[in-house]
């Protein structure tokens, strides 16, 4: 008669498989948890992932641990060339999510007969990880965009012209990391084609591409976000349609609209016009003092806009305004690359 306390050879192999995959799943979860904590600073993600780790740890039975190394693993130490290609946080999230999902599937299969509780737990967590991976990737993408918005002081906005792509590339070469594409006339087929071309340029230079007003063009061109005016769709509606991975900017010129935009979850605000400008002929300039007063307590990035060029940057800085959005001051320059470099240097220079 067999002693129920003795693990039979086949059970040993199964126990080894479960043991290895419980370790593998928990290791992958730990990578995701640490990125959620230190990379994303998101407590909700951390709590969810930690809970998965604790549940698997609690069900990592002694019978599985005792089987470890009982049968020599002839394949240990094997690696794959793709491992060295994990050169971004998004790739690390995806590869470790896959690691967890695969390990849980193995546990689910091999524990089904002798440990139905563990099999059920592995299945439930595996399906949760599918959703969590997308949430982490979306949050990670938006976090990257927010970081670029926060770290860069010069924001370039386009207007229609013949050699726009050539000018934009020069601006990007000058160090600009945020391009907003603004268009009012023409047909949507041409708008989308141009938006895709500009987006490709921005990706080449690791810069953000944002579409003004047009949510449909932003979605179709896979832009990094959309910039809304006060007469456009509201932020909450746009967020539902745009998804969690994209950023939303808003134009506002009074405290009521600014406070509402912040409350509704926008990622940055454009305030202006500061000075007289041909692009906003019907709007009275707010002036530097008013801009400073409106934005002094904001906890999200704010870009002053309207009539700004390299000649009035120092005046803006004297009023504590260091983030600006520029249209014609860059596009009409004889040397957009050099102009961008000068303005970026001036904005980052301490008074």
What are the defining features of this structure?
alpha/beta; 8-stranded parallel beta barrel
Q: N-to-C terminal Cα separation, in Å? A: 88 Å
**Major beta sheet, strand line-up:** 1-2-3-4-5-6-7-8
* Percentage of residues in DSSP E strands: 5-15%
As a whole number of angstroms, the C-alpha radius of gyration is 27 Å
Extract low-pLDDT stretches: 5-9
**Which structural class best describes the helix and strand composition?**
alpha/beta
Q: How many runs of DSSP E, i.e. beta strands?
A: 8
Average pLDDT figure: 91
The residue fraction in helices comes out at: 40-55%
Q: What does the overall shape look like?
A: elongated
**Largest β-sheet summary:** 8 strands, parallel, barrel
State the helix count: 14
Which sequence of SSEs, written as H and E, runs from N to C? HHHHHEHEHEHEHEHEHEHEHH
Q: Would you spell out the secondary-structure blueprint of this structure?
A:
Elements: H1 9-39, H2 43-58, H3 62-66, H4 89-111, H5 116-151, E1 154-157, H6 164-173, E2 178-181, H7 188-204, E3 208-212, H8 215-220, E4 225-228, H9 235-242, E5 247-252, H10 255-264, E6 268-271, H11 288-295, E7 302-305, H12 313-318, E8 324-326, H13 328-331, H14 336-348
Parallel strand pairs: 1-2, 1-8, 2-3, 3-4, 4-5, 5-6, 6-7, 7-8
Helix pairs in contact: 1-2, 1-4, 2-5, 4-5, 6-7, 6-14
């Amino acid at each position: 008669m067999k002693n129920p306390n003795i693990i039979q050879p086949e059970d040993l192999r199964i126990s080894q498989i479960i043991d290895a995959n419980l370790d593998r799943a928990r290791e992958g979860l730990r990578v995701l948890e640490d990125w959620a904590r230190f990379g994303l600073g998101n407590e909700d993600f951390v709590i969810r992932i930690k809970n998965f780790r604790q549940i698997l740890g609690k069900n990592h039975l002694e019978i599985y641990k005792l089987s470890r190394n009982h049968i020599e693993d002839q394949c240990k130490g094997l690696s794959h060339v793709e491992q060295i290609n994990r050169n971004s946080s998004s790739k690390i999230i995806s590869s470790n999510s896959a690691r967890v999902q695969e390990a849980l599937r193995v546990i689910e299969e091999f524990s089904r007969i002798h440990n139905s509780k563990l099999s059920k737990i592995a299945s439930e967590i595996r399906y949760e990880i599918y959703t969590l991976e997308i949430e982490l990737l979306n949050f990670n993408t938006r976090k990257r965009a927010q970081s670029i918005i926060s770290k860069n002081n010069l924001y370039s906005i386009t207007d229609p012209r013949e050699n726009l792509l050539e000018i934009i590339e020069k601006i990007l070469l000058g160090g600009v990391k945020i391009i907003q594409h603004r268009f009012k006339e023409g047909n949507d087929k041409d708008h989308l084609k141009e938006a895709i071309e500009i987006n490709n340029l921005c990706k080449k230079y690791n810069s953000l591409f944002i579409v003004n007003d047009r949510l449909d063009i932003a979605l179709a061109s896979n832009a990094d976000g959309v910039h809304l005016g006060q007469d456009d769709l509201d932020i909450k509606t746009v967020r539902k349609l745009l998804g969690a991975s994209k950023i939303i900017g808003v134009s506002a010129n009074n405290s009521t609209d600014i406070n509402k935009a912040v409350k509704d979850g926008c990622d940055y605000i454009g305030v202006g016009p500061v000075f007289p400008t041909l692009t906003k002929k019907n709007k009275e300039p707010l002036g530097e003092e008013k801009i400073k007063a409106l934005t002094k307590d904001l906890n999200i990035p704010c870009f002053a806009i309207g009539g700004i060029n390299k000649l009035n940057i120092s005046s803006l800085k004297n009023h504590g305004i260091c983030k600006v959005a520029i249209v014609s001051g860059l596009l009409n320059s004889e040397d957009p690359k050099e102009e961008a470099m000068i303005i970026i240097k001036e904005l980052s220079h301490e008074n």
